[in-house]
Amino acid sequence: MPLWTVTELMHLTRDELCDLADRIVTIVPELEAGSLERLRALTSLDNIRRVMALRDLHP
To answer: CA 3, CA 43: separation in Å to the nearest integer?
Structure first.
């Protein structure tokens, strides 16, 4: 799971952001608690929410 930065996410459309968030949410339960992969996934989700708020987008 790559870490998606705010800068990278700013280039995505609302639909792309929503799709990416859905894919990450699906994967998170399969990741081991405390693992780097899970931390990257959760941080990416947080970054997606930040970008959507910055751009005044709604899921």
So the answer is: 7
